[in-house]
Design a protein that fits this description.
With 797 residues, the protein is of the alpha+beta class. Among the domains are: 141 residues, Herpes Virus-1, CATH 3.30.40.10; 115 residues, Herpes Virus-1 (2-Layer Sandwich), CATH 3.30.40.10. 26% of the residues lie in helices and 19% in strands.
Length: 797
């Protein structure tokens, strides 16, 4: 006990709000379930794996640690709670698919460990000084710091897809036909069905719902009635409780929210507070169907016996509650040599600079993640011993998730997110952290050439921009199996009428070639109302997009998420013919050609007045999007129509300045003094920069807040130069370039009807063998579903 007494002044209790990191090592993925458990410094409350203890001791002089070892003990089946059926299309949240296993419980062993001699004092021990006992008890009782941060981020978030308020809710027509609905004993008015019944909120009719893909459901009587009456809203009987019920809008073709549901039901004599749930909600039915047919089984290769694989580069990642989008992106990213070179094997370098406190730095956490995924240290076959159950394989990247999502309105939550948007967010964050050295994201960066030709003068204009992902449209009209797909639709309707199920093997999706998607991307587009400086007026123009450079790694994104004819966001259920070898050499941009005349610069004469079509803006805002964001979409895309504007909203709604008021270009010509956007200026200054620095960044990026944030971190040396004598902007690093021939080395697939719900998995080519990474499960792929993926990673050959 003498050594304890010698260190008593360094032992603290986390009673003053200090953060306690007791679930994961700061520098590795060791945790209380690891062989040696986790050691918590009783001075800094930092968690450490055994191999990092002595380094921490030498760095800080702290000698006393609380060691926590946790083992899983099997729970007899009779003592296990009944498994709850999921009610939400979400993972790891209340009501969703649960990742917690109830077949075991934890058994914990604690002790005090003193360095440098590794003296072990088992707990409890009454001979220990009171301060030590209080510190140990407080650490054990504290909530882990990362869990606290996650809980704060989860405040006011939803786990599934948010419903829009129906446009019919406020002024719904309700007929005074004297109809009163009993509290039970319902039956379809046109057949004998007593389940899947819908009450029309206009005329009070009770009719059965649609027939589902598998033949279950109703006989379509409610739908047929709407086609005759056009009464828009119906509520599903059996789902109504005091908190609401499932309301469907036939005109809007979607599940909606009716904030006046209690009043609308009272019109037909229904007391909403007296009803109890007796039927499945539409989400529950969708979950049932998704588990039977569709993409879920195909993408996860559920019909095959998959052989687990272990070792270096074959480490899974546990799902931290709808974090599968992050898991898939990071697995793919760390197969790329640029990322391995930057982050893998750099732990010693990072530890040398460690302060002894939590390493809240992207480079540290990227190096930690790279080591966890690539070293094979956390990828071993499970070894059960007696009644002790081995912990699940893989790593639990909680620190990384919290750090990379900090401050972001979406990625800081437990909501399901879009993998493509997360990929671009990751690129942006890594670029900011790579000041002074080449970013590993350079392997993705390429230059896009946009050529616009005035239809009257034939003069041309060339604009170039950088991209990190090649987003391609999915032209349904170009399907190669139109007849088969149409025949399937007819067969499906016949089976539904007969009440027969549809065999998942018989499903025929529209099939489109990836090369066709590329052709659609490269096809000329007519720009209406184009202002031509050559004729000093409006005309039309032809616009064509090419690639000026070809990156080392090409990330291809298919625009599967679009809107239907009622402007409701939907996901295209299509099959894409994906080549293993892709040649895009024909997309090479050539720049200004001999004989081409450039459109003259507009120096003194003001540009035409910009008029934003408020009708288009209103159409977009009715869908529930922020008005300022919709004004920006119309400003950028109104010449291309409402669909293009809607696509712009879908692509940019996650931008940090999406809701910032639109700043229209000045009409006074180039000589007019630059005026920074006030809100953008405040946001940049909130990052710690002064007004002059923030103004300079916004001026260099035309008041674009997102680009300004990138610029300010990459031009630190220029920030304090006076505005009036500023030097020309330093050119960016040269784009990497090479031939346009690529091979497929990975892809990420999404299951579900929206990016807000569902699940992501990825497949990666490892030494000629496709491997599926489904969160912590890693196995040899038998039938890689290349045709159903969302993101494709190609490597130049």
């Amino acid at each position: 006990m003498e050594v304890i007494k010698q260190n008593i002044t360094k032992i603290k209790s986390p009673l003053g709000g200090e953060k306690v990191y007791k679930d994961e090592c700061a520098y590795s993925f060791d945790n209380p379930e690891s062989e040696n458990g986790l050691y918590i410094c009783m001075n800094t409350f930092l968690g450490l794996g055994k191999k990092h203890m002595e380094r921490h001791y030498r760095k800080t002089g702290n000698q006393v640690f609380l060691n926590i070892k946790r083992r899983r003990i099997e729970v007899p089946k009779d003592d296990q709670p009944p498994e709850k059926k999921p009610t939400k299309l979400a993972i790891g949240v209340e009501g969703g698919f649960q990742v917690d296993d109830k077949s075991f419980k934890f058994e914990e062993e604690t002790s005090i460990v003193v360095l440098p001699d590794w003296t072990v004092i088992p707990l409890p021990n009454r001979d220990l000084p009171d301060m030590v006992q209080l510190s140990a008890a407080s650490i054990l009782a504290a909530v882990d710091a990362w869990k606290m941060e996650e809980a704060a981020a989860m405040a006011c978030t939803w786990e599934g897809e948010k419903l829009r308020v129906s446009k019919h809710a406020d002024n719904l027509l309700q007929l005074d036909n004297g109809k009163k609905i009993p509290p039970k004993g319902w039956k379809c008015e046109q057949c004998d069905l007593t389940s899947n019944l819908w009450l029309n909120l206009t005329d009070g009719s009770i009719l059965c719902g649609r027939k589902f893909f598998d033949g279950s459901g109703g006989n379509n009587h409610a739908v047929e009635a709407y086609q005759q009456t056009k009464y828009p809203l119906a509520v599903k009987l059996g789902t109504i409780t005091a908190s609401g019920g499932d309301v469907y809008s036939y005109e809007e073709d979607d599940m909606v929210e009716d904030p006046h549901l209690a009043k609308h039901l009272a019109h037909f004599g229904i007391n909403i507070s007296a009803l109890e749930k007796t039927d499945k909600t539409m989400v529950e039915l969708e979950i049932d169907l998704n588990q039977k047919i569709g993409e879920w089984d195909v993408i996860q290769e559920s019909g095959n016996k998959l052989e687990p694989v272990y070792g270096a580069g074959l480490t899974g990642m546990r799902n931290l509650g709808n974090s599968c989008y992050m898991n898939s992106v990071m697995q793919v990213v760390f197969t790329i040599p640029d990322f391995q070179k930057r982050y893998y094997g750099k732990l010693e370098e990072i530890f040398g600079n460690a302060s002894g406190h939590i390493p809240d730095d992207l480079n540290v956490q990227m190096a930690k993640l790279g080591h966890g995924l690539l070293s094979g240290e956390y990828s071993h076959p499970p070894k059960d011993s007696g009644d002790t159950i081995a912990p699940p394989p893989g790593i639990r990247p909680q620190m990384f998730k919290s750090l990379i999502g900090r401050g972001h309105p979406e990625f800081s939550t437990k909501r399901q997110q879009d993998a493509q948007e997360y990929f671009l967010h990751l690129i942006n964050v890594i670029q900011k952290s790579s000041r002074g050295q080449e970013s590993p994201t350079e392997c993705f960066r390429f230059e896009v050439e946009e050529r616009t030709q005035c239809s009257q003068s034939k003069n041309v204009q060339y604009k170039n921009r950088e991209e990190f992902c090649l987003s391609l449209p999915v032209p349904l009209e170009a399907a190669t199996n139109k007849e088969e797909a149409a025949a399937y639709e007819v067969k499906k309707k016949e089976l539904q009428k007969e009440g027969k199920p549809i065999d998942p093997k018989d499903i025929i999706r529209p099939r489109i070639s990836l090369n066709t998607c590329i052709e659609a991307f490269a096809s000329p587009v007519t720009v209406e109302d184009f202002y031509s400086s050559a004729i000093n007026g409006k005309t039309t123009a032809n616009q064509q997009t090419r690639l000026s450079t070809f990156p080392d790694y090409l990330m291809v994104h298919l625009k599967k998420f679009t809107v239907n004819e009622n402007w409701v966001p939907v996901k295209l259920d299509v099959s894409i013919d994906i080549p293993d070898i892709l040649d895009i050499s024909h997309l090479r941009g050539q720049g200004l050609q001999a004989g081409e005349e450039v459109l003259p610069e507009q120096e003194s004469q003001p540009p035409p007045q910009i008029v934003i079509d408020e009708g288009m803006v209103n159409q977009l805002t009715e869908m529930g999007f922020d008005r300022e964001g919709c004004r920006k979409a119309v400003y950028h895309k109104q010449s291309q129509g409402i669909e293009a504007a809607m696509n712009w909203v879908m692509e940019h709604m996650g931008d940090p300045d999406f809701s910032v008021p639109l700043q229209l270009p000045s009409s006074g010509g180039k000589s007019q003094a630059f005026v920074p956007n006030d809100e953008a200026l405040s946001m940049i200054m909130a990052m710690g920069f002064n007004k002059d620095q923030a103004t300079k960044a916004l001026k260099a990026t035309d008041n674009n807040i997102e680009r300004a944030a990138d610029w300010i971190f990459s031009h630190a040396a220029e920030l304090d130069e006076p505005m009036e004598t500023e030097t020309p902007e330093a050119p960016q690093s040269k784009f990497r370039d090479g031939n346009g021939k690529y091979k497929l080395v990975g892809f990420i697939s999404h299951m579900g009807t929206s990016t807000s719900v569902g699940h992501y998995v990825c497949h990666i080519l490892k030494d000629g063998q496709w491997v599926i990474f489904n969160d912590e499960k890693v196995a040899k792929s038998v039938t890689p579903p290349k045709d159903l993926a969302y993101l494709y990673l190609y490597q130049r050959v």
